[in-house]
Every structure is written in structure tokens, then in C-alpha cells.
Amino acid sequence: METRQAAQTMPDWKVVADEIWAIIRENAQGFKELRESQRETEKQMKATDKRFGELVNRFGDMVEYMVMPNLVAKFEELGFTFTKANRTEIKDRKHGIFTEVDALLENGDKVMAVEIKTKPNIDDINDHIKRMEKLRTYADMHGDRRVYLGAVAGVVFNENEKTYTLKQGFYVVEPSGETFKITEPKDKYHPREWQPAVCPP
């Protein structure tokens, strides 16, 4: 009697197996669709990142072309006379010096290297210090005895970043009305000059 009842309550293992395989197949299909969806999402994200990067680059170029023509005139108000203004790129593979300058203003005695950012942050300012050091090293290697100075231009300049920029001895270039203004590091701070090496390499 007990044996007959036990037999009646035992599951039909073939049915159970079929159900398990059905669940596995269903999940496998679900995972496959999920992976395809993830791949498509990643593809779309990469395309979006690329488009965003292109837009940022174009905006950066636009800002440079808007700022460049007036930089010379604005620095003249501070007593500088620059005769050249160009975007500059250095690729010195022999000495491992690679850098770009958004706007390089030059004359016979001084060079002003201007970094242009939409919204400068502390890292951008620290990077410009390193850029100035590279420019100085490159200049010394090529017999350039001019004094190098730096400036950071921003469409949006937060107060902390502005103060930090001035503290590093950089000029601050920021919008003002229909044009822009240049704040000189003075009073508590002083313009930093990257002087030529005493003994050029």
C-alpha cells in the first residue's frame, strides 16, 4: 500500500527534464538577446561619444578663432607688443617633447602661451604648467633666449579655478560683455616667467 502511494507521488522525470531544458533554452535565448542588446547599446554609445568629441573639437576651434584675433590687442593694453599669433604644435621625437599651444603670441623678447578651455579646471591649469616647462626646454635646445609667460582662457571660469590660475602666475582671459578681459596676476600674485637656462643644453 505504502509502495503504491510512493509510486504515485514520484515525479515523471521525463516531463521534469523537458521542462528544465525548455527553461534553459528560454534563458539561453534571453541571454543571447541581452548580449545583442548590450552590443548594440555599446555601439550606439561609441558613436555618440565620437560625435560628442567632434562637437567639442569644433567648439574648441571656434573659441580659438574667436579669441585669437583680439588677444594681441588685449595684451597691448597691458603693455605687451606681440607681432605674431599662431596655434603651435611641437613634435620633437628625438628629445621626447610633444605639446600643443592653442595660441602662441610672440615678439623679439617675450612669448605668451595661451591655453584655451571651455571651462578650465585645476588639472587643465596644472597641465599648462607642464606645457610651459616643455616649451622652455624646447626653446633652450634651439637657442631661444626669450622669456616665456602663460595665460589660461576660459568661456566659464569658476572663482576657485580663477584664483588658482592667478596663483600659478598665469594671466586669466575670460568673457566680458561682447568681448573678453585679461586679469593680470598682481598684488598677491606675480606673473611667472620661464626664463632661459643659464647654461643652454
How would you state the average pLDDT, rounded? Answer: 82
Separation, N- and C-terminal Cα atoms: 105 Å
Radius of gyration: 31 Å
Second-tier CATH architecture of the largest domain: 3-Layer(aba) Sandwich
Helix count, DSSP H or I runs of 4 or more residues: 4
Question: What are its keywords?
Answer:
201 residues, alpha/beta, Trna Endonuclease, Chain: A, domain 1, 2 domains, 4 helices, 23% strand, elongated
Sequence-ordered SSE layout with sheet pairings:
Layout: H1 2-9, H2 13-76, E1 84-92, E2 97-106, E3 110-117, H3 122-141, E4 147-154, H4 159-167, E5 171-176, E6 179-183
Parallel strand pairs: 3-4, 4-5
Antiparallel strand pairs: 1-2, 2-3, 5-6
Model description:
With 201 residues, this protein is of the alpha/beta class. It has 2 domains: 2-52; 68-183, Trna Endonuclease, Chain: A, domain 1. It has helices at 2-9, 13-76, 122-141, 159-167; strands spanning 84-92, 97-106, 110-117, 147-154, 171-176, 179-183. It has a 6-stranded mixed β-sheet. The longest helix has 64 residues, at 13-76. The model is unreliable at 1-7 (pLDDT under 50).
Short structural summary:
The protein has 201 residues and is of the alpha/beta class.
